[in-house]
Amino acid sequence: MGFSKKFFNQTRKPEGFLGRRMIKRMNAGHDLMAKWGMSRAEGYAPEKMLEIGCGGGKHAAELMEKYPSAHITAIDYSGLSVKTAAKRNRAMIKKGRCAVLRGDVSRLDFADGAFDFASAFETIYFWPGLERCFAEVARVLKSGGTFMIVNESDGTDEKSLSFEKIIDGMKNYTVGEIEAALRAAGFAEVKSFHHESEPWIAVFAKK
Predict the structure, then answer these.
(1) Looking at residues 92-105, what average pLDDT do you find?
(2) Neighbours of 80 (CB within 10 A)
């Protein structure tokens, strides 16, 4: 496996030296997209939030800033990401506003209805069965809870599709595919936003 392929495969589950470099790259490279996606999340007042695939923890920090009364539980199945996110958010962890845990979206270790808002930035590309994982998210959300998905790719742009050949197990999804899987997983209302000049999408699903 060439260096480029090894490096970009760290987007799936960052580990070791290359994983640390990838986490830094993702934090910087996804910042504008994440902020755009969060700007679509108006009119919400969550109390208990779940951030799935938290990576380096930057988005969790920004969500706490956006919703200053909310508690956030950030999870990732990469031990390195959990360690990095916990370090970044250590002040909020000490204040009791944040918890960073290792977790698997296909088997969430939380009670039914534990959260009123869940988010996933640049991560569903790697989830093992979209409908099954969406059903798990729906399970841990309260009735009326919201799931926010923000992706850099709308599933049709050539640049993102080219990464499917480099990154093992990566799958870009169109808005239509995401919406269909959300409804099949039990979400009642789905609405989507598309950036005016980039292939970025934000999808909001209400349980």
Answers:
(1) 97
(2) 19
Give the pTM: 0.87
> What Cα–Cα distance (Å) separates residue 138 from each residue in 52, 66, 185, 193, 200?
13, 23, 7, 21, 23
Helix (H) or strand (E) holding 75: strand 71-76
Q: Which domain holds residue 109?
A: 3-206
Give residue 169's identity as a one-letter amino acid code. G
Indicate whether 156 pLDDT > 60: yes
Confidence of residue 9 (pLDDT cuts 50, 70, 90): very low
Q: What is the b/e burial string over 97-120, where b = at least 16 CB atoms within 10 angstroms of the residue's CB?
A: ebebeebebeebebeeebbbbbbb
Per-residue pLDDT, 69: 94
CA dist., res. 140 & res. 108, Å (int): 8
Determine the distance from the C-alpha atom of residue 108 to the mean position of all C-alpha atoms in its chain, rounded to a whole number.
14
Range with lowest mean pLDDT among 7-21, 71-85, 90-104: 7-21
Number of domains making up the chain: 1
Give the tokens for residue 164: 């499917």
State the CATH number of the domain containing residue 94: 3.40.50.150
Please give the span between the terminal C-alpha atoms of the chain, in angstroms, as a whole number. Answer: 42
